[in-house]
Specification:
The structure holds 2 protein chains of 2 kinds. Chain A is α+β, with helices and mostly antiparallel strands. Chain A contains 14 helices and 44 strands. In chain A, about 50% of the residues are buried. The chains are: A alpha+beta, B alpha/beta.
C-alpha cells in the first residue's frame, strides 16, 4: 500500500512542471579536484538539486527555464526541460562564421561622376560603427564575421550605358556580370563560391528609377567569363547628391539583410512598416563623430527577434503564460491559433536600438503564408492601427495588451532587460515594478502618505518621452523629468510618441502616465480606485473584494464574509491597456498599513488579498489558497518622509516622489527614531516639522536664509532681503541635525511642493551628498506642447551658501 | 528449363516495368521529349521573344532579388529560376502548388536545395504549376 502510494506520488511529481533558474556552485577539494552541483532556483529562492547536468548555456544566465520534478531513490530532484522551440512557424536558416565580401564601385559608361571617394565607400561597408559590417556583426552578437575579400580601390567603368543595361531585360544581372568580369579582367580576381559582392553605382538606371538599392535573397548563379559563380549581390544606386555628405548606411545594412535571406517585416498593407527592424523602412538620421569630424548618417535601428531567430542568433527563453525576463537577442513566444506564433521582445539597449526614440516591448505576429509571401510580419498590438504606425505600437512599463487571447504586461525594465508577464499578473509579479502613484485629491493625508511606503515596494517609472518638435532632431532619447505621482482628478502628464503617416505628416499618439499605476486610498477617497473597485459590486476583471457601504466593511463576494475594521485590500488589476495595483483599507491607517505590508512582506502569487492590518495575516485571497500568515522579511528604512497631518493630499503624494521609506505625519515624528534621511515635504504653514527648521518670516536652522514671508506672499532671500518669487518656485534644503540629514522640500503651493520633490528625485544628489547645510530656491514650470504636459523644467534662482 | 528461364525473364521485365511506372517523381523528374524548347534555355534563348508555350519540368534553384525604393515604399521582389549553369529565367509562381518538405524560405537562394518546377515555359517566363523536392 505504502509502495503504491509512493509510486502515485512519484507520478504526480513527474507531471508537475516548474520554472526557475539554473544555478550552480563548485566545491574545491584540497587535492585540487572539484565537484559542481547544479540546482533549479525557484522564485522564492528555494534550491532543488538537478538530477542531471543542465545545458551549460543555461547556468547562471538568469534565463528562466522550465523543469520537471522527478522522484529518485535518493529523494526528489529536478530535471531541466529542453527549451521549447516555436514549432515551425519561424523557419531557421542560420548564418555564422566568416562571410567573404567583395566591394566594387562602378560607374556607367555614360555617367562620369564619382560621387564618393573610396574611403567613404570602404567605411560605409567595412568601417567601424556605423557600417554594414558593424551592424551585422553587432546584431548577430559576433556570430557573423564580415571579412573583406577584395576591395577594388577606384571606380570600375562599366561597358554599357544606363539605358543599355535596362535594354538587357535584367539590368541587375547584367551589371553584376559586367562587374564580376571587370575585376577578373583588371585584377584577376575570381569570386569565391558563396561569397558576397557589394556594388556601389554612381547613378540609377532608368528601369530602377527611384530605387535606393537591390539585393539578392541568398545566393544566385551568375554566368561570369570564367564560369558560373554563386554569389549574393547587392547594388546601391546614387539616388541623390546629398548622399556624398550623408551616408545612407541603412540601405547597405538593409540590402545585405536580403543577402542573408531576410525579407521585409512590415504588415500585409505596408511591408516596410516596421521601425524596430533593419529590414523595415525606417532610417534614423543621426549626427555622429567620424574620421571626418562630425557626419550625419542614416542608420538602421536594430533587428527584431523573428529575424534574429531566423539567422540562428536569437533565442526564446520560454513560451506562453509566465513571468519572463527579456534580454538582448532573447524573448518569448506565444502560440497563435490556429498556427504560428507571436514573439515578444525588448528593444532598447543594443548599439543601434539606442537610436530608437523609445524603449519598448514589441510584439510580432509571425505569419506563415504560402509563398511568395514574406515570413515575418509586424502585427500591431496597441489600439493604433494603420499604415506607418509601428513606432507607436509598443508597450512601455505598466502597459498591457491582449496577444493571442492572453494578456502581455510590462512591469519593469532597465536599459537591457524588461520583465513581462504573460497571463494575468499576480501581486508577486508586480513587486518591484516601475510605478506611478495616484492618490485622491481630497483624501486624508494619511491615505496619501501611504504612497511613500508603496514607493518602497516599487521603483519610480522612468521613461522617455518627446516634445512634438523632437521629430527634426531624432538622434537621441529625451527625458524631461516626468512626474510619477498624481492626484486622481488632475490632467496627468503624458508620454508623447509620434509617427509619420503615409502622407509624410507627423502624427501624435499620447499615452498617459507610464508605469504600473499604484492607486492608493479606498473607493470613497480616490476616484481611480473607485473606477476600478467600486463599492457594492465586483471590481475590474471580477475582483471579488469590495467596500460594502451598507455593512461598512470589506466584503468577499464569493463567501459573503465582511471585515469591518483592521482590514485592507491589495490587488493587481489589469484593465484596458494598463496594469493597476490597488492599495486601500477601511480607514486611512489601514491604507497605510496595507502599503507597509507591500513594503515589508512577500506578496503571494494571487491577484488580490484581504489582509489584517494589525498582524498582516492574509484573510482572503483571489484565487483562494493563500490564506494564512504573511511571510514578512521586513524592510530596512534608510529614509522617512514627513508630511503635515492636515496638509493637502498633493503634498503627501509629492513625498512619494521624494523618497520611499517610512511615511509619517508631522505629529508622529520622534526624532531619535527617525532613519538617517528625513524628507520633510510641505511648507512651514502645512508641516510643523518643516516649520521647526524653516519657520516663516526669518532665517531657519543653521542660518538657512530662504524663508516664506507671510506679508510678501513669497520666498525671500534673507541675506539681501529680496523677494525671490511668489509663484512656481520652491525651496529645497539639506540640513544636518544631530547626525541626521533633514531634507526640506516645500513650495508656495501644493504643485510647487510636488515639483520640489521631483527636483530632489532628479537633481537632489548634489544636495544630498553635501556634508554641510545647503539650500536652493528653484523656479519651475511644466513642459507642455499642444495641450500635453510631458515634463518639468527647472531654473535655479538662488543657492546657499 | 528453357521455359522456366523465359518465365523468369518475363517476370523480371514486368517488375522492372512496374517499378519504372510507379517511380516517385523525386527520383525521375519528368523529362519532356522534343520540342527542343523544353530543354533548359541558354542565356541567348531567354532574351528572345515569346514562343509557343510548352509544359516543362526542370530541376534547378529558386532565386529572388528585392528592389527597394528611396522612399521605402512600393518595393517589389523579382523571382527567377536558375539551372545551375549560369542560365536563369524569370519565374512566376503565383498560381503554383508548392509541395516542398521544408519551409519555402529555406530554398530561396540556397545552392544546397534544388527543386523541381513543373510549369509552362513561353520563352520568357516560366509559369510554375508545381514546385517540389
Amino acid at each position: 500500500m505504502t509502495k503504491a502510494l509512493f509510486v502515485l506520488l512519484g507520478l504526480g511529481w513527474l507531471v508537475f512542471a516548474l520554472s526557475g533558474y539554473v544555478v550552480g556552485h563548485d566545491v574545491l577539494f584540497v587535492n585540487r579536484s572539484s565537484v559542481t552541483y547544479f540546482f533549479l532556483m525557484l522564485d522564492n529562492g528555494s534550491l532543488i538539486p538537478l538530477v542531471e547536468p543542465p545545458p551549460h548555456y543555461l547556468v547562471g544566465t538568469g534565463e528562466r527555464v522550465e523543469a520537471e520534478l522527478v522522484f529518485t531513490e535518493v529523494g526528489v530532484g529536478a530535471r531541466v526541460l529542453a527549451p521549447r522551440e516555436p514549432t515551425q512557424a519561424i523557419p531557421r536558416q542560420p548564418v555564422s562564421g566568416p562571410l567573404l565580401v567583395t566591394l566594387v564601385a562602378a560607374k556607367f559608361a555614360d555617367v562620369s561622376a564619382e560621387p564618393y571617394n573610396m574611403s567613404y565607400v570602404h567605411d560605409v561597408v567595412f568601417g567601424p560603427f556605423p557600417s554594414m559590417r558593424h551592424f551585422w556583426e553587432s546584431a548577430s552578437g559576433g556570430a557573423v564575421v564580415i571579412r573583406p575579400y577584395y576591395v577594388h580601390w577606384g571606380w570600375v567603368t562599366l561597358p554599357r550605358t544606363k539605358a543599355d543595361y535596362c535594354n538587357t531585360g535584367d539590368a541587375f544581372d547584367s551589371i553584376t556580370v559586367d562587374v564580376i568580369n571587370a575585376i577578373y579582367n583588371t585584377a584577376g580576381v575570381r569570386l569565391p563560391d558563396r561569397s558576397y559582392l557589394v556594388i556601389v553605382l554612381n547613378a540609377q538606371p532608368p528601369c530602377y528609377s527611384g530605387a535606393a538599392g537591390m539585393g539578392d535573397v541568398g545566393f544566385v548563379e551568375y554566368a561570369a567569363a570564367y564560369g558560373t559563380v554563386r554569389v549574393a549581390v547587392t547594388q546601391y544606386y546614387h539616388y541623390a547628391d546629398w548622399l556624398t555628405q550623408v551616408p545612407d548606411v541603412a540601405v547597405f545594412i538593409h540590402e545585405f539583410g536580403h543577402n542573408l535571406g531576410l525579407l521585409h517585416p512590415g504588415t500585409l498593407v505596408e511591408e516596410y512598416d516596421n521601425v524596430w527592424d533593419a529590414m523595415g523602412g525606417f532610417r534614423a538620421l543621426v549626427r555622429l563623430s567620424s574620421w571626418l569630424g562630425t557626419t550625419t548618417y542614416l542608420i538602421s535601428t536594430g533587428l527584431s527577434l523573428p529575424h534574429l531567430y531566423y539567422l540562428g542568433v536569437g533565442q526564446f527563453v520560454g513560451s506562453g503564460t509566465g513571468s519572463w525576463l527579456l534580454g538582448p537577442r532573447s524573448g518569448v513566444y506565444i502560440p497563435a491559433a490556429p498556427a504560428g506564433v507571436y514573439t515578444v521582445e525588448y528593444k532598447c539597449g543594443d548599439v543601434y536600438e539606442q537610436f530608437l526614440d523609445w524603449c519598448g516591448v514589441v510584439v510580432h505576429r509571425v505569419y506563415n503564408l504560402p509563398p511568395p509571401s514574406r515570413w515575418v510580419f509586424f502585427h500591431t498590438v496597441l489600439n493604433v492601427t494603420g499604415r506607418f504606425v509601428s513606432p507607436v505600437n509598443f508597450l512601455d512599463v505598466g502597459q498591457s495588451a491582449r496577444v493571442a487571447g492572453q494578456r502581455v504586461s510590462v512591469v519593469w525594465r532597465n536599459s537591457i532587460h524588461a520583465k513581462i508577464v504573460v497571463g494575468l499578473p499576480t501581486l508577486a509579479d508586480v513587486v518591484g515594478a516601475n510605478a506611478t502613484f495616484v492618490v485622491g485629491s481630497r483624501a486624508a493625508t494619511i491615505d496619501s502618505v501611504a504612497a511613500v511606503y508603496a514607493r518602497t515596494a516599487f521603483s519610480p517609472t522612468a521613461t522617455f518621452t518627446l516634445p512634438v518638435f523632437h521629430y527634426e532632431i531624432s538622434n537621441s532619447r529625451m527625458h524631461f523629468n516626468p512626474l510619477f505621482a498624481y492626484l486622481d482628478d488632475e490632467q496627468w502628464l503624458t508620454q508623447v510618441r509620434y509617427y509619420v503617416d503615409s502622407a509624410g505628416a507627423r502624427q501624435l499618439y499620447p499615452v498617459r502616465y507610464p508605469g504600473v499605476v499604484v492607486t492608493v486610498g479606498g473607493p470613497l477617497a480616490n476616484s481611480l480606485t473607485r473606477a476600478l473597485n467600486p463599492p457594492d459590486r465586483l471590481g475590474a476583471g471580477g475582483l471579488p473584494f469590495y467596500y460594502d457601504t451598507a455593512a461598512g466593511g470589506i466584503r468577499d463576494a464569493r463567501t459573503g464574509q465582511v471585515w469591518r475594521n483592521r482590514a485592507a485590500v491589495v490587488a493587481v488589476v489589469p484593465d484596458g491597456s494598463r496594469v493597476y495595483v490597488l492599495v486601500w483599507g477601511i480607514d486611512g491607517e489601514d491604507t497605510r498599513r496595507a502599503a507597509r505590508w507591500l513594503a515589508e512582506c512577500m506578496p503571494p502569487r494571487a491577484y488580490a488579498v484581504v489582509i489584517n492590518t494589525t498582524d498582516f495575516r492574509v484573510l482572503a485571497s483571489w484565487p483562494s489558497g493563500f490564506v494564512g500568515a504573511s511571510v514578512c522579511p521586513g524592510a530596512v528604512y534608510a529614509a522617512a518622509a514627513v508630511v503635515g497631518a492636515n496638509a493637502a493630499s498633493i503634498d503627501a503624494v509629492g513625498a512619494a516622489i521624494a523618497t520611499g521609506g517610512l511615511g509619517l505625519l508631522d505629529s508622529e515624528v520622534v526624532f531619535d527614531k527617525l532613519p538617517p534621511y528625513v524628507f520633510s515635504v510641505g511648507g512651514p504653514m502645512a508641516n510643523s516639522f518643516t516649520r521647526l527648521y524653516n519657520p516663516p518670516d526669518g532665517p531657519g536652522f543653521g542660518g538657512l536664509p530662504f524663508y516664506y514671508s507671510i506679508s510678501r506672499g513669497g520666498i525671500v532671500d534673507g541675506r539681501i532681503g529680496a523677494l525671490l518669487c511668489t509663484s512656481n518656485c520652491f525651496v529645497v534644503a539639506k540640513l544636518v541635525d544631530r547626525g541626521k540629514a533633514v531634507v526640506l522640500a516645500w513650495g508656495i503651493g501644493g504643485d510647487d511642493t510636488r515639483a520640489a520633490a521631483a527636483y530632489l528625485h532628479y537633481y537632489g544628489r548634489i544636495l544630498l551628498d553635501s556634508r554641510s547645510n545647503t539650500a536652493r530656491v528653484v523656479h519651475w514650470s511644466y513642459l507642455s506642447r499642444d495641450g500635453y504636459r510631458y515634463g518639468l523644467d527647472f531654473t535655479i534662482l538662488a543657492t546657499w551658501p | 528449363m528453357k521455359f522456366g528461364f523465359l518465365v523468369l525473364a518475363v517476370v523480371v521485365a514486368l517488375v522492372v516495368a512496374a517499378v519504372l511506372v510507379s517511380a516517385p517523381r523525386e527520383s525521375t523528374p519528368r523529362t519532356q521529349q522534343p520540342p527542343q524548347n523544353n530543354s533548359p534555355p541558354t542565356t541567348q534563348q531567354t532574351d528572345k521573344t515569346s514562343q509557343q508555350p510548352v509544359e516543362v519540368t526542370w530541376r534547378g534553384y529558386i532565386y529572388a532579388v528585392v528592389v527597394d525604393f528611396v522612399n521605402m515604399t512600393g518595393g517589389y521582389t523579382e523571382w527567377f529560376f536558375g539551372f545551375g549553369n549560369g542560365t536563369t529565367v524569370r519565374l512566376d509562381f503565383a498560381d503554383a502548388a508548392v509541395r516542398l518538405r521544408d519551409h519555402f524560405a529555406i530554398y530561396v537562394g540556397n545552392p544546397d536545395r534544388p527543386v523541381y518546377v513543373r510549369g509552362v515555359w513561353n520563352g520568357t517566363v516560366l509559369k510554375a504549376l508545381e514546385i517540389y523536392d
